[in-house]
Specification:
The complex is a heterodimer of chains A (435) and B (484).
Chain A: E1 15-17, H1 20-23, E2 28-34, H2 44-52, H3 59-62, E3 65-68, H4 73-84, E4 88-93, H5 99-107, E5 111-114, H6 130-139, E6 145-147, H7 154-171, E7 179-183, H8 188-200, E8 205-211, E9 239-243, H9 245-258, H10 265-282, E10 289-295, H11 303-309, H12 328-332, E11 336-337, H13 339-343, E12 348-351, H14 355-360, E13 367-368, H15 371-380, E14 390-393, H16 399-409, E15 415-418, H17 421-427
Parallel strand pairs in A: 2-10, 3-4, 3-6, 4-5, 7-8, 7-10, 8-9, 11-15, 12-13, 12-14, 14-15
Antiparallel strand pairs in A: 1-2
Helix pairs in contact in A: 2-4, 2-7, 7-8, 9-10
Chain B: H1 15-21, H2 24-34, E1 38-41, H3 45-59, E2 67-69, H4 76-83, E3 88-91, H5 94-102, E4 110-112, H6 118-127, E5 130-133, H7 136-148, E6 154-161, E7 169-170, E8 179-180, H8 184-193, E9 198-204, H9 212-231, E10 238-240, H10 253-267, E11 283-286, E12 289-292, H11 306-314, H12 324-330, E13 334-336, E14 348-358, E15 363-367, E16 386-388, E17 396-404, E18 413-423, E19 430-434, E20 455-462, E21 465-470, H13 478-483
Parallel strand pairs in B: 1-20, 2-3, 3-4, 4-5, 5-6, 6-8, 6-9, 9-10, 10-13, 15-17
Antiparallel strand pairs in B: 1-14, 11-12, 14-15, 14-19, 16-19, 17-18, 20-21
Helix pairs in contact in B: 3-11, 5-6, 6-7
């Protein structure tokens, strides 16, 4: 296949059957629409391109900036598209909670504006949220912004009505599936696909999935947030069901580990929500049915999200020479030196504080190895000769005691921790310098 | 689908509040004698709150002062009780400073913040408290007063504002207070110029936001500012991060989530209204889509008060990529805080008598207090009052009511929310608005229409039971009186 540019590779994603041994449904064939195979990485490529395309003419000459309220895949796709057309891209958001996505956007050259949190001393007469204000600036004429407006732009729906939906019907040999399950973000994909499917068969059942209210699943709105979306029409869905972050991660793990599908949490949520819903109808069925869910994007961007919620998945073997392996008695027995002794210290003085604080003020002649780095060094063994006396310095003498205990255990004969730390040193009136 | 269960917003009540509410006879006697509304403060609840913050300090090995933001409540009892702890007080007016000095705080435990007039600065300089300067000119005005009076040097902090974030731009609300952080060197020049009058002890910020990321940027910027002070050989060791730690008002977060979901449904016309005249608390229905923003305090905030401070100190500094608490310690920096409402958690309640229960399309309950006497609505805090029946027998009957105030004013509703009470109120019952000591008790109360402002009493435990005195008569010495 030969293309003129990457946008031509958007769409025409495969529809892949999920092994019944994995989902356990007896009378339903479950298919995944693999939107993670779009060139910029997600389902949102379709909408981003559909929305941006008519706005590009003349935008580069005017020096406009493409702007969208997005903290995820739409921003990613728009940043790529903007870059291809010599435009800048700016993402405005108060939802930028996934560090990898933020880093990726910055890597793509996007500018990010993060909106402020709610005021602690509330002014209830101020009913204009920062988002509404921002919106007004964007839509005023000659603002220099091209605003794609994904939550209200009908072209977001059209991308799926004319793309994603018909592709599903074509791959099912001209039939619409009996069930379609989708997570609701901008509501663009679920609304668009539902429209296309119902044109073929008005009886298609559409299940919308939202996040539990206090939960956070990147790319899915909560039951309240969907009402703020202009494209959201409750009538589209036969049922709106809630999934939790935990369930989404369970689904993600099944797709990743058993289906050869590196899906992100939205795909995992859709899979879990689909199986949960279909299980209730499966038993009563007498003939075969088909169901389709969408795998929106890929897992790699969510590693920190997963690490935070399922630390056990990332368990690593303990490393040797780790302060966490010390017991309380060893720490209490760590050799210390008081300020008087420290003033006459004959050997090396190692300051474990941050480089910044060290540069501001430190004990004359000391060297700075920040504790994190020091810990890394010790995993490898003693970083200095046993004949070299070492005095360890930290803020209050607590961390330095741990490291002194560890170095003692590692066989260093003359290591000391400065008792009370550099704060005790300062309070005793001992000299601090700044080089 | 509309939710048909009653939409309760049950307040979180710690044992001290629960204990006071069981004293129905005492509370009725007090309102009979002193009138409705009646403000009740519980000074001893302060001890746990101070300890809560101290525990966070200990956990992070930090030193520094906890300054109570006096503006949250005018009570003498609370202030005097606090003077008997190791906390300090943050005063924002001449009157508050006089009150603090008269309540037993030495100058070392008082910090003046906010906009200041000449008289306020004069008393601050005379009494030797720390002045948290709001502008460059204030530094000069203070220095002139010190010079004119040949006074000892006054300890000052410089309040900074408009912190720049590098990389990702953090949009913050505009503030009317403080010196833009870009003008730090001018501020330091100003302090140096008046070196005989002013002694710089540190820098400060106070941001009106619940957003942790904004505060992390401000705190790290203050560390940079302190380093600039040290570069100039100004030994400044403190950062004052203000308040804004918040309070968790509700017992059950699920109730808050249900209520706000249902409010959105009501605004979209998908269920019966939940508010007077379909007030939307900032939400509005535009062609079937919900627009605007919910103008309510997040009443369910499990991570508030000391917990919020802990989270801030554990947050990673955006530039130096170490926890902020660790950086403070690395820099040998003391941390000062100015909590207001968080220190007053569970420290008081407002009592009001039910005057009339009017049947009609909605049940209207008229109270002998107005919306300014318990300014929950003004501050966007939604939580249910507790019914204290007139004769001690309450018949459980879930009842939806609107609470009307005692002003001859259409808008005088205690809350525009339809309140669900587990007990049907009757004339002569009392309603207790609990956990209202922080900002909701006397902050906005007025004598409009010659209606009285509520009297204030302090309740304290003595010999295993509750005793009371007028707020102005409370001194934290009753235990020793008992011993004698």
């Amino acid at each position: 296949m030969r293309y003129e540019d990457m946008t031509e590779a958007i769409g025409n994603t495969p529809l892949v059957r999920i092994d019944p041994a994995v989902h356990g449904l007896r009378n339903i064939d479950l298919y995944a629409k693999m939107e993670l195979l779009n060139p910029f990485g997600s389902l949102k490529d379709r909408a981003a391109w559909q929305m941006a395309r008519p706005l590009l003419a003349g935008a580069a000459e005017r020096g406009d900036t493409v702007v969208e309220l997005s903290s995820g895949n739409t921003a990613k796709a728009l940043a790529m598209i903007a870059g291809m057309h010599g435009l800048r891209f700016k993402s405005v958001t108060n939802r930028m909670k996934v560090p990898e996505v933020k880093d990726l956007l910055l890597l793509l050259g996007a500018e990010i504006d993060e909106l402020p949190g709610q005021a602690e001393c509330l002014d209830p007469s101020d009913t204009e949220d920062p988002l509404s204000r921002m919106h007004r600036t964007l839509t005023s004429n000659g603002s220099g912004y091209v605003h794609t407006d994904q939550y209200f732009n009908e072209r977001n729906v059209e991308a799926h009505q004319h793309g994603t939906g018909p592709e599903i019907v074509k791959d099912l040999d001209g039939r619409a599936p009996d069930y379609f399950v989708a997570c609701v973000g901008t509501a663009g994909s679920s609304t668009g696909v539902a429209r296309a499917l119902r044109q073929h068969d008005p009886d298609v059942r559409v299940i919308g999935l939202v996040a539990a209210k206090s939960d956070f699943i990147p790319g899915i709105r909560t039951i309240d947030e969907v009402h703020e979306v202009g494209l959201f029409e409750p009538g589209v869905y036969d049922a709106i069901e809630t999934i939790t972050a935990d369930e989404a991660i369970d689904g993600l793990l099944t797709l990743v580990r058993r289906c050869g599908t590196p899906a992100g949490p939205t795909g995992g949520g859709a899979f879990h929500g689909a199986v949960r819903h279909l299980r209730t109808v499966d038993a009563g069925l007498t003939e075969r049915r088909t169901a389709v869910f969408i795998v929106c994007d890929r897992v790699e961007s969510y590693l920190s999200y997963l690490r935070e919620r399922r630390p056990a998945l990332f368990g690593r073997p303990p490393r040797r020479n780790d302060t966490r392996g010390l017991d309380e008695a060893e720490i209490a027995a760590a050799p210390t030196a008081d300020v008087e002794e420290a003033r006459r210290w004959p050997g090396l003085v190692v300051d474990l504080r941050s480089p910044y604080a060290f540069q501001a003020l430190h004990i004359d002649g000391s060297i700075n190895i920040v504790d994190e780095l020091f810990a890394e060094l010790l995993h490898g063994g003693l970083p200095f000769s046993r004949r070299q006396p070492v005095l360890l310095v930290c803020p209050v003498g607590e961390k330095s005691a741990r490291y002194a205990a560890l170095l003692t255990r590692m066989g260093h004969p003359s290591v000391r921790s400065l008792a009370g730390g550099i704060i005790a040193w300062r309070d005793a009136g001992a000299r601090l310098v700044r080089d | 689908m509309p939710d048909s269960l009653p939409l309760l917003l049950t307040p979180r009540m710690e044992p001290i509040t629960q204990s006071v509410l069981t004293e129905g006879a005492l509370l009725r006697q007090l309102t009979d004698g002193l009138g409705s509304p009646l403000n009740v403060v519980l000074p001893e609840a302060l001890d746990d709150n101070v300890e809560g913050f101290r525990a966070v300090y200990r956990h992070h090995r930090l030193r520094g002062q906890i300054y109570f933001a006096h503006k949250a409540n005018r009570s003498s009892a609370l202030l005097r009780h606090l003077a008997a702890t190791d906390a300090g007080v943050d005063v924002a007016s001449l009157g508050e400073l006089q009150h603090a000095l008269g309540s037993g705080f030495g100058p070392g435990r008082i910090m003046a913040t906010g906009p200041k007039n000449r008289e306020f600065l004069w008393l601050a300089a005379r009494s030797g408290i720390t002045v948290n300067a709001d502008s460059l000119d204030e530094l000069s005005e203070l220095a002139a007063l010190v010079a004119a009076g040949r006074l000892p040097r006054v300890r000052v902090m410089v309040r900074l504002a408009e912190f720049a974030s590098r990389g990702v731009r953090m949009v913050s609300r505009r503030s009317r207070f403080g010196v833009p952080s870009g003008q730090l060197s001018e501020a330091l020049d100003r302090v140096e110029k008046h070196a005989d009058q002013l002694e710089l002890t540190g820098v400060a910020y106070h941001l009106d936001t619940i957003g942790l990321a904004e505060k992390a940027i401000a705190l790290e910027s203050c560390l940079v500012a302190l380093d600039e002070c040290r570069r100039r050989d100004r030994a400044a060791w403190s950062i004052d991060i203000g308040g804004g730690f918040g309070v968790d008002y509700l017992a059950d977060g699920q109730q808050w989530e249900r209520y706000t979901s249902e409010l959105a449904q009501a605004m979209l016309g998908r269920r019966a209204p939940l508010t007077w005249n379909e007030h939307g608390y900032g939400l509005r229905n535009e062609a079937g889509t919900l627009r605007g923003t919910l103008g309510l305090y997040p009443a369910s905030r499990p991570d508030s008060g000391p917990g919020y401070l802990g989270r801030l100190l554990s947050a990673t500094a955006p530039e130096q990529r170490r926890p902020l608490g660790t950086l403070l310690l690395d820099s040998m920096c003391d941390l000062d805080i100015e909590p207001g409402r968080a220190l007053l958690d569970q420290c008081g309640l407002v009592l009001a008598r039910v005057l009339e229960v009017r049947e009609g399309a909605d049940l209207l309950v008229r109270l002998d207090l107005n919306a300014r006497d318990v300014s929950l609505e003004e501050h966007g805090v939604l939580m249910d009052p507790v019914v204290i029946p007139r004769d001690g027998n309450a018949v459980p009957e879930t009842t939806e009511v609107y609470l009307l105030g005692n002003l001859c004013l259409e808008s005088d509703l205690i809350t525009r929310r339809k309140v669900v009470l587990p007990v049907r109120p009757r004339p002569g019952d009392l309603l207790a608005f609990v956990n209202t000591a922080g900002y909701f008790m006397d902050f906005s109360a007025t004598r409009a229409l010659h209606q009285p402002i509520g009297r204030k009493v302090a309740l304290f435990r003595q010999g295993g039971s509750w005793s009371w005195c007028l707020d102005e008569h409370y001194w934290p010495v009753h235990e020793s009186r008992e011993a004698a």
